[in-house]
Amino acid sequence: MTTGEAFNKLKAIMEDTHNLRAAAAVLQWDMEVCMPPKGAEARGRHLATLSACAHERFTDAAVGKLIDQLHGQADALTEDERALFNEIAYQYERATCIPEAFVRRHAKAQSAAYHAWLEARKQSDFSLFKPHLECMVNLAREKADYWGYEASPYDALLEEYERGMTVAQLRVIFDSLATRQRTLIARIMNAPNQPDLSWLEQPWNKDQQLQFTEHVLRDIGYDFAAGRQDQAAHPFTTSFSIQDVRVTTRVDERMFFSALYSSIHEGGHALYEQGYSQTDEGTLLADAPSLGMHESQSRLWENLIGRSLPFWRHYLPVARGLFPGQLDTVTPEQVYAATNRVTPSLIRVESDECTYNLHIILRFELETALIEGALDVADVPAAWNEKMATLLDIEVPDDAHGCLQDIHWSHGAFGYFPTYALGNLYAAQLFDAMTAAIPDMQEHVACGTFDTVRGWLRDNIHCVGRRKTAPDIITDVTGAAPQPDAYLNYLETKYTSLYGLS
Ligand code: ZN
Questions:
Q1: Class of domain 167-499
Q2: Catalytic residue among 162, 266, 295, 367
Q3: Which residues does 439 contact at the CB level (< 8 Å), separation at least 6?
Q4: Which residue has the higher pLDDT, 199 or 234?
Q5: Cα–Cα–Cα angle for 462, 479, 425, nearest 5°?
Q6: Helix, strand or coil, per DSSP, at residue 365
Q7: Active-site residue, 119 included
Q8: Rounded to the nearest 10 degrees, what angle do helices 126-147 and 356-371 cross at?
Q9: 227-248 burial: b if 16+ Cβ within 10 Å, else e
Q10: C-alpha 348 – ligand 1 centre gap (Å)
Q11: Neighbouring-strand partners of residue 231
């Protein structure tokens, strides 16, 4: 077989696995958005068959043979073909060094752990989850051994979500975040200017809220001819191709901000998916290099743009038109202050920009200790509560509001949490680079025009796909490796003026 024939054959198999995964994603979307509750059991079977087919096709020995042949002939490929080949070889290697028997054992344990976690959280009783968490930690260690690592088994797990990042790098970054964010929070708690939130206490019509979200999504450049917005209990974005990228949001009549920021956040993810290079369609290159990079796009739109004063200078008049008589006496400065209110709280998903990373640092410290064997599962609740007191000065009333609040450990997803914090850091670094490249960007935002912002992100981030790792993209685009200073400077500048800190 010639190099060209081998490459085309490999590409065709990859296209099959992509199509199977896309079909599974449609079923998954339907499950979250439209499916009647009684359909759940059968849907589980449909999804299991589809993902098993995709996995078998992807890890077939024939794929390994083609990869072996092409390894020696990669010079004959074009640059784009070589990038795709490298990505296929990387993912094949990761997938095949895990034995089938382990994959089945893991899936079974995961399902049991998930159900135990649901019940444990409901009853706020950690003991119900403890044996399952022990099992998931052991499986994670076993998986790290299959993948291999140099310094810490956690590095191997982290690689799955944030390729190119290590525990050692994260420790340095997180130490700096924890110190400066805690100092800032303490100053804010004692600040004279606490925001006025009284105007938020009125009902906000759900249909008008949805119209508002669609208006903003359209403005930021989300293409409704290549997507749609629906409602879901836990908002998410999914994509079946570059031309079909769907977002979901959640509307609550008592909450003015909830649907809006949920939509902008998912819109940021969706612009990434709609922004991949069309020539990469259906290949492994049409994907983000890491979860942190994906999250950087949602957080950049949601926080750095959506929670800015220029944004509200433009969108408060829009909101006044949608909610007649409800916002007449409110100023853009008041909305800006209300949407940036800081309150240390128990629950990660409800926390503000200033406290959010501390929730992540807590989980990172516990996870690394569990995986490296320095912490027993039995001691997790006490360790959690102690860290909440140190990091956020908060007392945890029960495990449901403490170590049982997140779904991730029941899935065995150790190494996932740090990507949320990295998303914040990447977003701030990219925002600085973008501001330098587009000096009048804030004026565009204040006019509700986002072509330059979206264009810059598309050229520098979206089109790259998986050709480079996230740390390499950040370094190339911003001139500095991933680091905490841009985010800390952004927070300190924003909150110093908002809260009148001296
Ligand atoms: Zn997100």
A1: mainly alpha
A2: 266
A3: none
A4: 199
A5: 65
A6: helix
A7: no
A8: 70
A9: bebeebeebbbbbbbbebbbbb
A10: 13
A11: 249
Q: Is the dihedral of CA 311, 314, 320, 321 positive or negative?
A: negative
Q: What gap in Å lies between CA 2 and CA 360, rounded to an integer?
A: 50
Neighbours of 502 (CB within 10 A): 6
Q: Determine the distance separating the centroid of ligand 1 and the alpha carbon of 152, expressed in angstroms.
A: 27
Pair 69, 1: CB distance under 8 Å: yes
Region for 465 from its dihedrals, namely left if φ exceeds 0, alpha if ψ lies in -120 to 50, beta otherwise:
left
Residue listed under structure tokens 């209300």:
338
Q: Are 63 and 91 in contact (CB under 8 A)?
A: no
Rounded to whole angstroms, the Cα distance separating 186 from 164 reads 34
pLDDT in tens, 117-166: 999 999 999 999 999 999 999 999 999 999 999 999 999 999 999 999 99
Query: What is the pLDDT, as a whole number, of residue 40?
Result: 87
Question: Could you tell me which residues come within 8 angstroms of residue 394 by beta carbon, excluding any fewer than 6 positions away?
Answer: 344, 345, 346, 388
- 22-80 pLDDT, tens per residue? 999 999 999 999 999 899 889 989 998 998 899 999 999 999 999 999 998 989 999 99
> What is the Cα–Cα distance from 422 to 289, expressed in whole angstroms?
13
Q: Max alpha carbon distance in the chain (Å)?
A: 74
Cβ neighbours for 270, distance < 8 A, ≥ 6 positions apart: 222, 227, 237, 239, 245, 246, 247
Cα(195)–Cα(157) distance, rounded to whole angstroms? 41
In the reported structure, the alpha carbon of residue 265 is separated from the centroid of ligand 1 by a whole-number distance in angstroms of 6
Ligand 1 center from residue 292 Cα (angstroms): 9
d(CA 419, CA 231): 25
Query: Angle at which helices 451-460 and 258-274 pack, to 10 degrees?
Result: 50
| C-alpha–C-alpha distance, residues 281 and 275, integer Å | 11
Identity of the residue numbered 188: I
Which residues, 6 or more positions from 266, have their beta carbon under 8 angstroms from its beta carbon? Answer: 235, 236, 237, 247, 248, 249, 298
Q: What is the DSSP letter of 467?
A: S
